[in-house]
Write a structure and sequence with these properties.
The complex is a heterodimer. Chain A is of the alpha/beta class. Chain A has 3 helices and 9 strands, in the order βαβαβββαββββ. In chain B, the strands form 2 sheets. A 6-stranded mixed beta sheet of chain B has the order 4-3-2-5-6-7. In chain B, strands 1-9-8 form a 3-stranded antiparallel beta sheet, with helices on one face. The chains are: A alpha/beta, B alpha/beta.
Chain lengths: ~180, ~180
């Protein structure tokens, strides 16, 4: 596996900066859901790191569930945005307060479809917490209730976000110069 | 497991009646979907036997895909119909002509929920073909565009429908003798 320093462009957020923002988000979520119970839904795999670091800062009673999704037609230029459920929730979200945790939103198509799907299950409330927002790439309007950081339209990795499944473990968020990136064999 | 003869009350729909009706449905569907790119969608596992027999009578080119669902169990309200996706479609149904092939519709709750879910994916059209309709048990209005048979509210098995996972292989639809099943 290639050393990340060979294709690292710049570090956007250092671990301490991320940790501070995550704590702020946790405090905000705790305040908003005071007196309520929460179901935290982690969207595998990219949001794992963020979710695991966020939930200790959420003080209201909560349960955790995970979903794994993929877009249909990966690689197609014009994606319908429809998402395929690879792993569905174990929990019935009817009447529940749901907080969906995502790593990154760009076009908004995937998130829009996930929200539509979850709404068919009639949760009490459905809120979205996203770590990174590539606002410039938005094609479909989606409501992000809790946002970590807005970022430019660059290829990012680290803190749960992968390049070909690797580098999720890195504690910072960085941009990659893909010209210097070699695909694993 | 006991042989089916030990737990059978009556044969509701015999094999030749079933096959004749399936052929009719297939012909009707072929006519209605002429010139269209049809996608048959079957929910595992009950509808599989019906699906395979039906497909052989559908003369227009068509594809097939499957979903597997389950109830949420504890805490789930049956009336919401909300189900957990165990296996989702491989196919993106955006702009597709989808025909959902079902074994049986009773309360309609699950079917209503599945249709609502599929509609969020923007198919061109979405219709339902059900082999058996237990109309008397309906709680929510659901469209059945192609219906095999309307049946009374009896405990049926065979032709894809199981009794504790067994007897799906029987070529007819039968009614359980509840005095002899489950066995003591």
């Amino acid at each position: 596996m290639q050393d990340y320093r060979e294709f690292l462009d710049e570090i956007l957020f250092m671990p301490e900066v991320i940790a501070r923002r995550v704590a702020e988000l946790g405090a905000q979520i705790s305040a908003d859901f005071q007196g309520e119970e929460l179901l935290v839904v982690c969207l595998l795999k990219g949001a794992l790191t963020f979710t695991a670091n966020l939930t200790p800062h959420i003080t209201v009673p909560q349960t955790l569930d995970c979903m794994s999704l993929s877009s249909y037609g990966i690689g197609h230029y014009a994606s319908s945005g429809n998402v395929r459920v690879n792993l569905d929730l174990q929990t019935n979200i009817e009447g529940r307060n749901v907080l969906l945790v995502e790593d990154i939103v760009d076009s908004g198509r995937t998130l829009d479809h996930v929200l539509r799907m979850l709404r068919t299950r009639e949760p009490k409330s459905l809120k979205v917490c996203v770590l990174l927002d590539k606002k410039e790439r938005r094609e479909v309007a989606v409501e992000v209730d809790y946002l970590g950081f807005e970022i430019p339209d660059k290829y990012v990795f680290g803190y749960g976000i992968d390049i070909d499944e690797h580098y999720r473990h890195l504690p910072f968020i960085a941009t990659a110069d893909l010209r210097r990136y070699r695909r694993p064999t | 497991m006991q042989p089916y003869t030990a737990i059978l009350s009556e044969i509701l729909i015999d094999a030749s009646t079933l096959q004749k009706r399936v052929a009719e449905l297939g012909a009707q569907i072929s006519q209605d979907y002429a010139g269209l790119d049809l996608l048959l969608l079957c929910i595992l596992r009950g509808g599989v036997v019906f699906l395979v027999d039906l497909m052989r009578h559908i003369t227009v080119p068509h594809a097939v895909d499957f979903m597997a669902i389950s109830s949420y169990g504890v805490g789930a309200r049956a009336s919401s119909g909300s189900v957990r996706l165990i296996l989702d479609l491989q196919t993106d149904i955006q702009d597709r002509h989808v025909l959902l092939v079902e074994d049986i519709v009773d309360s309609g709750n699950t079917l209503a929920y599945v249709l609502e879910l599929l509609r969020t994916r923007n198919p061109a059209t979405l219709k339902v073909c059900a082999l058996l309709d237990k109309k008397a048990r309906r709680q929510v209005n659901v469209p059945i565009d192609y219906c095999g048979f309307v049946i009374p509210d009896k405990f049926v098995f065979g032709y894809g429908l199981d009794l504790d996972e067994y007897y799906r292989n029987l070529p007819f639809v039968a009614v359980v003798d509840e005095t002899r099943y489950p066995p003591r």
